Request: fold
Amino acid sequence: MIKMNGVIKRYGNLVALNQFDLNVEDGQIYGLLGPNGSGKSTAINSMLALLSIEKGEIKLFGQRITPTSYAIKRNIGLVPQEVAVLEDLNVQENVDYFCGLYVSDYRERKRLVDAAIAFTDLDKFRKFLPKKLSGGLKRRLNIACGIAHKPSLLILDEPTVAVDPQSRNAILEGIKALNQQGTTVLYTSHYMEEVEQICTTITIMDKGKGLLTGTKEELKASVNLGDQVDIRLINHKAEDMDTIRSLPYVVKAELVEDHLKLEMARGESRLASLFHVLERQGIGMAEMSVRQPTLNDVFLEVTGKELRDHV
Reply:
């Protein structure tokens, strides 16, 4: 569906894409995860031939894309990072205008416009101008304009920036529904929980490079990250820490007041072994929590910096 091989794009001395590869297959919800400035939007603009590239190859639907590849572009829907609607047209007129760029038949276009408005739950707002819509509703309108012509490939560039949690959830559920109806989705974001929630395959990128690619399970397994365990202890002694730190499956251990904080190699059997050690030492447990690695942990491990939500 999308294939980028060794793509290089520079802005003066800034290398925006550095030997960047991407392979999105038919039927996927493919997540492109990275902080602001990592190259996500440049990758999208390059694959749509809105930007010229210095080196590499880009194909969509198995064909090389050029600025005049209109037959290919008719099968693509784009929801840009910045809301791109016409302020002088109401909701229905906006969706009709953008659908009309691809569909000339009036009856067919009306059916598609009605379907897109219903899908994004904007029926009550058909006659509203964009300036009368909340941020979340405006984002939904942006999506309706991008999906009205029923594209087989939908590209969403950070579609949930600055929207409320309810609208964000509605957008994510809508994306999953579109995918179930046969649309392949490329979804870029720096909200890791969104990517983890909906994407079947994920590429983590930074500084124009792809760092890791795989399912969320594969990404977590590809780096040496353990479970974070917090146990509130009873009847413990300071010297017990030497025994705990010596355990082969304990990566890190510290005692903060009565809380034992551990990083442990993953696995239920290792937790059971730890419990036996604590029992032998005469240490009781009042409560325990276990946190498994997240995509944020993976990103921190491979880049040495943490992704933060920018609103």
